[in-house]
Amino acid sequence: MENTNASLPRASFDVHGVQYTCPDLPAHFGADYFRLPVVLRLLLENVLRNTQGAERDAAVAAIFGWLEHGTSESEIAFQPGRVLMHDTTSTPALVDIAAMRDALAEAGVDPGVLNPVLPVDVSVDHSLAVEAYAQPDAATLNLDLELRRNAERYRFLRWASKALSNVRIHPPGTGIMHTINLEQLATVVCQQTGPDGITLHPDMMIGTDSHTPMINGIGVLGWGVGGLEAQTVMFGMPTMLRIPDVIGVRLTGALQPGVTATDLALTVTQRLRAIHVSGEFVEFFGPGAATLPAGSRCVVANMAPEYGATTGYFPIDKETLAYLRQTGRSEAHIACVQAYAQRTGIALDPVAEPRYTRVLEIALDTVQMHVAGPKRPQDLHPYGHTRSILAGLEFAPRAPSALPRHAIAIAAITSCTNTSDPRLLMAAGLLARKARQAGLRVPPWVKTSLGPGSPAAADYLARAGLLDDLAAVGFDIVGYGCTTCIGNSGPLPAVVRDAMSAGAVHPVAVLSGNRNFTGRIHPDLDLGFLMSPPLVIAFALAGDAEKDLSREPVQAAPDGRSVYLADLWPTEAEIDAALAAGLQPDDYRAAFKIASANPAWQALQSPATPRFPWDAASTALRRPPFASIDAGTQLGRYVAHPLLVLGDDITTDHLSPASAIPPDSLIADFLVERGDDRHDLNVFASRRGNWEVMMRAAFYSKSLRNLLCPTAPVGHTLHAPSGRLEPIWEAAEHYAKASQPVVLVAGARFGTGSSRDWAAKGQRLLGIRAVLAVSFERIHRSNLIGMGILPLRLPDGVTPATLLLQPGDRIDIDAEAASLAPRADVPVRILRADGGIQALSATAAVETRLEIRLLQMGGVIPAILSDTISSAVRHP
């Protein structure tokens, strides 16, 4: 390998009369360059652009060394160009920054030196609740309520945008963050003027939401991280990552008429979870990939966290260019993207066969219409099988009801996953039109909603004449935000609540989202099916999740005629015609500009000070105790009580819920004691700026089963020394006062789901020093380390079920800071209450030297503060 510190050959090319230049990596590296997956070609470019000297030489050698085995243990530094956040991940991150500024000021350092060095875009999209629905003014009413409920938090965001450089807030109503990224923020290729003229490089980014990989659908390499990892990046630290294994998904053929991108995404999810994908990069290639429009690719890429991957990447090609043109990008920029992708060898070549760690084949023409659920997105079923699936639950009604026993309570066209693709929304609108023409109506017990990812959707649906058709069957637009997908579904219809209270029904949600974990969609619903937007409307019309829509009529028309799904399903030609009539490139910029100028948002007053003035009476914003310089490491040798023992598939919704705060909960009691209205407490996510609320909310989930005390009330555990059942935070407080460490034990896929850093922050506040689990989901593992908590993988064959931990059992962990290394063995002993001892060898689920440093310092925040103070001393 040549010394990469030598000047790389440069390629120059003319686009629309402008001269551009970039490193000529194909010429420099030759045939081996094209053997790399495209995602590794992009990481190679990033390393070459952002590192120097021996570090760069070693990283380049390691990337090409990956080709021998398709895997590597080597680390590289990745430097994204920008960071994307949403309001309920940015709020805790910005609260941390405000508290860090206080800590700096108290240490005699100018707080104004702490500023992000990368552009940070914040989308206010996670707080919109579906209160009003099935009425023309639903969107306005819901937005007004959102602004009233969250005014204090939004004023804080506006303070941050003024006090911190490089922070830009996109207000409520501008759309979902990933849709904004696709339509407004992504450049695909970036330009920079320097000594070599106008140079080009790929657009690469990270986001504090697990569905950030949606941008992979148009060739932008990006992935989701926790808010803690994002803080390290925005303050100048690189993201250190082990050179990833890359799974190639070879697509052949083409989707059959009537089969949607949603069906493909659900199929990919099931197939990749079946081979136990966990953190790998996924890259789609082959002739079938070239047949998919960019909108379809984005649907598939969005669900990368559901199939266990870090990315779901589609390289740039003509479909990418068509999407940029559709969303109003300039022809000059589109030509620049095309020229750069072709010249640097990162464009999609449908016949290329790069080296991959593993290859999975999917024939697109075999994909059928599906639903997934009722509790996990990887559980795939033909759409007509919902009856047999629900029959297996053996629900026996305790009282008669006019509602079906598995009545559909919520039918939501929601989530960036499917509403960012105009083709899917047009298909839903056309199905609604045919249902309207047949005289069909949604039953009164179904709560319907349409929450598009972009305000431009209203324009193109109206221009195609479909907005009124959607409204006629109850799917009025309720706003432009995550809504039901994130759990902001609002209250259930009263008739459903009453029937549930009587034990007469076991209701179901149907949605076009990406997750259906128990309690995620609504705290009182444990059943949900994921499906395409048009199928959501069909099930809403049926009103009964047990209907077999492949055989039975959706509904009877007023004239008595049975109307089947085939009578309503739109043809590809009809969808094409609606797209031709509705889409106009100018809509995207214009709608976004109008929404950004919302007068109610602009009227919010915020302080103009470098430090945030905390209000001691606030129940929304409090200075967190972990934002300190001397937090201290949690590593070492210690004997701990297990605070909780949990099973498999513990999600971040279990660890830190986001949905509505139950009015009869301990958390509600805490807030009411401080003056809040018990019947207007908003959602847990709106309280992520208040550590006292979120500590009490940790593990507050009806579906969470603590194996230490399986019959304990929600949010409780057993305090072993006293034998008392106590709220988890109280038990943790008693352990802390007695200087008794605590740990947590869990099963497989611990921390699956959303990227929320409060899933780790809550554990730190409860004093948890280590988590011993069968396996960890990628982002939550990173968040644990970011809070100084050591993740330990249990040895093969050891699970919570085999350990049979009992109250009084303790765990001896030998994890000294000086000896810890990535993937090191860590001695563990189970000290039984009866005197027995079981010795184990766990593995530190730590991947990089940077992660070791963070654990040694006590987490991300102490590391940032230490680096900032050191820099201030060196450069006063």
By oligomeric state, this entry counts as: single chain
Quick one: overall form? globular
Average pLDDT over all residues: 95
The biggest beta sheet reads: 7 strands, mixed, barrel
Spatial ordering of strands, largest sheet: 24-27-28-29-32-31-30
Backbone CA Rg: 26 Å
Question: Could you describe the 3D structure shown?
Answer:
The strands form nine sheets. Strands 24-27-28-29-32-31-30 form a seven-stranded mixed barrel. It has a five-stranded parallel β-sheet with strand order 6-5-4-9-10, sandwiched between helices. A four-stranded mixed β-sheet has the order 1-2-8-7, with helices on both faces. It is an alpha/beta fold. The longest helix is centred in the first third of the chain and has 20 residues. The chain is globular. Helices cover 35% and strands 18% of the residues. Helix 12 runs antiparallel to helix 13, helix 16 packs across helix 22 and helix 29 packs across helix 30.
List the helices and strands and how they pair.
Elements: E1 10-15, E2 18-23, H1 25-29, H2 31-35, H3 38-50, H4 53-69, E3 75-78, E4 82-86, H5 87-106, E5 120-123, H6 138-149, H7 151-163, E6 167-170, H8 177-185, E7 189-194, E8 197-202, E9 204-207, E10 221-224, H9 227-234, E11 239-242, E12 246-252, H10 261-274, E13 281-285, H11 294-302, E14 311-313, H12 318-326, H13 331-343, E15 358-363, E16 370-372, E17 380-382, H14 386-391, E18 408-413, H15 416-419, H16 422-437, E19 447-450, H17 456-463, H18 467-472, H19 494-501, E20 508-511, E21 528-530, H20 533-542, E22 555-556, E23 562-563, H21 565-568, H22 572-582, H23 586-596, H24 599-602, E24 636-645, H25 652-655, H26 666-673, H27 691-697, E25 716-719, E26 724-727, H28 728-737, E27 742-746, H29 758-765, E28 768-773, H30 778-786, E29 790-793, H31 800-803, E30 810-815, E31 825-831, E32 837-844, H32 849-857, H33 860-874
